[in-house]
Specification:
The protein has helices spanning 31-38, 55-64, 111-126, 141-149, 178-182; strands at 2-4, 15-17, 21-25, 69-76, 82-92, 95-102, 131-136, 153-164, 167-177. By secondary structure, it is of the alpha+beta class. The chain has a single domain, classed as Gcn5-related N-acetyltransferase (GNAT) (Aminopeptidase). A hairpin with a 2-residue loop joins β8 and β9 (167-177). α1 packs across α2. The longest helix is centred in the middle third of the chain and has 16 residues, at 111-126.
Length: 188
C-alpha cells in the first residue's frame, strides 16, 4: 500500500493505493456514481437509513458530511469513478469505527476486503490506532463474514439499538486490536 497526502476539505484523508484500487477522499462530485448504490433497496436493507430517492438527496448527504468522519471513495486503479466508500469515525483517541459500502457490480471480487485492508493498515500502522470497531445488522451475513475474514472478533450484540427504515434492529459489534492486525498472517 502506498500513501500520499490529500489536500483541501478532505485533509487528514490520505490517498491510499493497492494493486487494484485507489482510495481517495470522497467528494460531493461522487454523488452521481454512488447514487445507484445508495438508492438500491437490497443493498441498503441493513443500513440505518432508507435508500435515497433522488440524486439531490445523495448530493445533500455527501455535502453535509460529518466532521468527525473521514470518508474514502473506493475507485479502481486508472478510473476515478467511485464504486463505493470506506468511512472512519474516530470516537476517542486511537479508537475508530469503520463502515463501508460497495456497488453491487463489484461484489464477490475481493474489492471490499482489499479496500478495508488498506484502510486498516493506514489506521493501525501509519496512525497508530489501538482499536477499530464496526457494527452491522445480525442478518447482514456478508458484512459479518468480511469482518471475520479481516480478523475482527464478535464482541457482543446491542439489542434494539437502531430504529431503521425496516424497523427497530439489533446490531452486532465487532472489534479488532492493533496487535491482532499486525500479527495476522499476510497473503504471500
Amino acid at each position: 500500500m502506498a500513501i500520499a497526502d490529500s489536500t483541501g476539505a478532505a485533509r487528514g484523508t490520505p490517498v491510499l493505493t493497492t494493486a487494484r484500487l485507489r482510495l481517495r477522499p470522497r467528494t460531493v462530485d461522487d454523488a452521481e456514481a454512488l447514487f445507484p448504490s445508495l438508492s438500491d433497496a437490497e443493498l441498503m436493507t441493513w443500513w440505518s437509513h432508507a435508500p435515497h430517492q433522488t440524486l439531490d438527496q445523495t448530493r445533500a448527504s455527501l455535502a453535509r458530511g460529518d466532521p468527525a468522519w473521514r470518508v474514502w471513495a473506493i475507485t479502481l486503479a486508472g478510473d476515478d469513478t467511485a464504486i463505493g466508500y470506506v468511512a472512519v469515525g474516530e470516537k476517542r483517541a486511537a479508537v475508530s469505527e469503520i463502515g463501508y459500502l460497495l456497488a453491487r457490480a463489484h461484489w464477490g471480487q475481493g474489492i471490499a476486503e482489499e479496500a478495508l485492508t488498506a484502510t486498516l493498515d493506514q489506521l493501525f500502522l501509519a496512525e497508530q490506532h489501538r482499536r477499530v470497531f464496526a457494527d452491522t445488522d445480525p442478518d447482514n451475513v456478508y458484512s459479518r463474514r468480511l469482518l471475520e475474514r479481516l480478523g475482527f472478533r464478535l464482541e457482543g450484540v446491542l439489542r434494539a439499538e437502531w430504529e431503521t427504515h425496516i424497523g427497530v434492529r439489533d446490531t452486532t459489534l465487532y472489534g479488532l486490536l492493533k496487535e491482532e492486525w499486525t500479527c495476522r498472517p499476510r497473503p504471500a
